[in-house]
Amino acid sequence: MSNLPSRRTALINRNTNETKIQVSLSLDGGPIDPLPDNADFSAESVAPNAPVPSQTTNHHASQLKGSQQIWIWTGIGFLDHMLHAWSKHAVDDHHTTEDTLLALGTAFTTALGPRTGLARFGHCYAPLDEALSRAVLDISSRPFFVGNFDFDGPMIGQLNSQMVHHGLSSWAMAAGVTLHVDVIRGSNDHHKAESAFKALAGACKMACARIEGREGEVGSTKGVL
């Protein structure tokens, strides 16, 4: 019998009048559950132009390997790119961004399960050329978000630059975490945003780590998170 802990996974559907979002998430890497059609979501009818994921998929937000499987298609190229950066290192653009990040937050907290035996806190600095960002995360069940991005332009590709802040705030609220993300320096908005998402990926990886010897323990003096 294997002593390895069970994999933490979640499959979430989020359907609104404006968007239909499906998220399959594994916090521990490896294969992800397929996204099945259901009564509310038919991939072919909702997103007929979406590339079909396979081992030969050639899409800038896809990576299907044995240790990690990533497949993202929101219809907004830059949002796909940012979500891919996050995964690699874990309708209008407003509703698409908000609903996608809300679904990801719900998938995150569902896959996490009981908040026991975790490092709980995570932080990471991530550079991208001239840009440098920092993310600090607390799996606290006290949802709160502070972000400082200081983008120069109104758009980053197809994505309104304000949606970076709003999207990450939506994720933190749905995930039930306290999150601070700061772009410390940078002159290229694309680099600023990507370094921020990569910093968040590193912080998530640290905070979600299982700590040997703390199985069943809650990382809080209150005894509950």
UniProtKB/TrEMBL annotation:
Keywords: Amino-acid biosynthesis, Histidine biosynthesis, Lyase. The keyword Amino-acid biosynthesis applies. It comes from the Eukaryota. It catalyses: D-erythro-1-(imidazol-4-yl)glycerol 3-phosphate = 3-(imidazol-4-yl)-2-oxopropyl phosphate + H2O. Residues 27-61 are annotated as: Disordered. Pathway: Amino-acid biosynthesis; L-histidine biosynthesis; L-histidine from 5-phospho-alpha-D-ribose 1-diphosphate: step 6/9. One of its GO terms (molecular function) is imidazoleglycerol-phosphate dehydratase activity. Its EC number is 4.2.1.19. It is an enzyme of class 4 (lyase). Residues 52-61 have a biased composition (Polar residues). One of its GO terms (biological process) is L-histidine biosynthetic process. The keyword Lyase applies. Belongs to the imidazoleglycerol-phosphate dehydratase family. This is Imidazoleglycerol-phosphate dehydratase. It comes from Alectoria fallacina.
